[in-house]
Amino acid sequence: MAKILVTGGLGFIGSHTVVELVNAGYEPVIVDDLSNSQLAILDQLNTIIGHKPAFYQLDLTLETDVQTLALAEPEIEGIIHFAAFKAVGESVDLPLKYYRNNFYSLINLLNAYYSKPVNFVFSSSCTVYGQPEKLPVTEDAPVQPAQSPYGNTKQICEEILQDMIASGGSKYKVISLRYFNPVGAHESALIGELPIGVPQNLVPFITQSAIGKRGPITVFGSDYNTPDGSAIRDYIHVVDLAKAHVAALKLAAKESFTGYDMFNLGTGKGSSVLEVINAFEQSTGVKLDYKIGPRRAGDVEQVWGDVTKSAEKLGWKTELGIDVMMSSAWKWEKYIAQNPLN
Ligand code: WQD
């Protein structure tokens, strides 16, 4: 079985990808520093996939730790690099924390496996597009000046990977996946998103508000140039997103694939904040309490992805709609309220 290193494999997207890797016949090897995840997710994965995956708790920013990892796991076919700090607001307050973590970990990993033929999948973000001029946005749209140090790390990490491939010195093949807005949870409700503190993202705030952990939801802006005035995003179910990583590994493994490529991971369809709130109410039967507030600094008005290239080259498209995104996120919120993991 081909071994795949999954950094950040106990996190939200990482844990769902571990499940899909096993479903596809791969052997995931998880690396995580537990800075934004729980060890208990390993047990949850055990329940879903029937065994505990290999796990290394280590800090990828420490070069010696990563080299030790490469010695312990020399035979890997792929790396899916999720591990990164991702809170936009925190990155504005603590830029060095973000630059240190997100750059050191990428560079240490690349160095550790530099001489090996490894297929490398990088977690990037639609944040690189800023507010695109044309919607849906395609992969060849210009990368815009970053709105936050977090967004900047995604842009620069993409550049680091492209420069490394252009240099021709390594045996890597690299695919960057530009995520739109991942939401939802596994159908088992055994894994899902575990935000630290007050959720900054819309869907975890909705589910926590619905269960009574938070007050009413604030809709950030109702005066955007959109049909209902609230901002539009391309929400994608995390299980669909996870499956795209398996598709990316398969594409990179082909002899015909060389070098570097990047793909949008979205549904190709935008939903406004008010539409998301409505979809939650419709699919769960739970009424939400919300109010309209001012715009949030740094937010773009509307963005959704063109997924033609992903469909053609990755042979992947989403299967789960906004209703399943909402109902699965809600099922997870209720599960975690009954079964706290920490
Ligand atoms: C979605 C929409 C908000 C909360 C961010 C990062 C991005 C990516 C994912 C990840 C926006 C509105 C939100 C609330 C609201 N990074 N909203 N009330 O901002 O599109 O993307 O997370 O690792 O890089 O920028 O996602 O979920 O925060 O917001 O009205 O309480 O919901 O204004 O329009 P966003 P989000």
UniProtKB/TrEMBL annotation:
One of the record's GO cellular component terms: cytosol
Pathway recorded for this protein: Carbohydrate metabolism; galactose metabolism
Superkingdom of this protein's organism: Bacteria
UniProt xrefs under CDD domains: UDP_G4E_1_SDR_e
GO biological process, one term: galactose metabolic process
Essential cofactor(s): NAD(+)
One Pfam family from the record: GDP_Man_Dehyd
Catalytic activity, EC: 5.1.3.2
GO terms of molecular function: UDP-glucose 4-epimerase activity
Keywords for this protein: Carbohydrate metabolism, Isomerase, NAD
Catalytic function, reaction form: UDP-alpha-D-glucose = UDP-alpha-D-galactose
InterPro entries reported for this sequence: NAD(P)-bd_dom (IPR016040), NAD(P)-bd_dom_sf (IPR036291), UDP_G4E (IPR005886)
Enzyme class, spelled out: isomerase
Domain NAD(P)-binding: 5-326
Subunit structure: Homodimer.
Family named by the database record: Belongs to the NAD(P)-dependent epimerase/dehydratase family.
PANTHER family named in the record: UDP-GLUCOSE 4-EPIMERASE
Protein name: UDP-glucose 4-epimerase
Biological source species: Mucilaginibacter mali
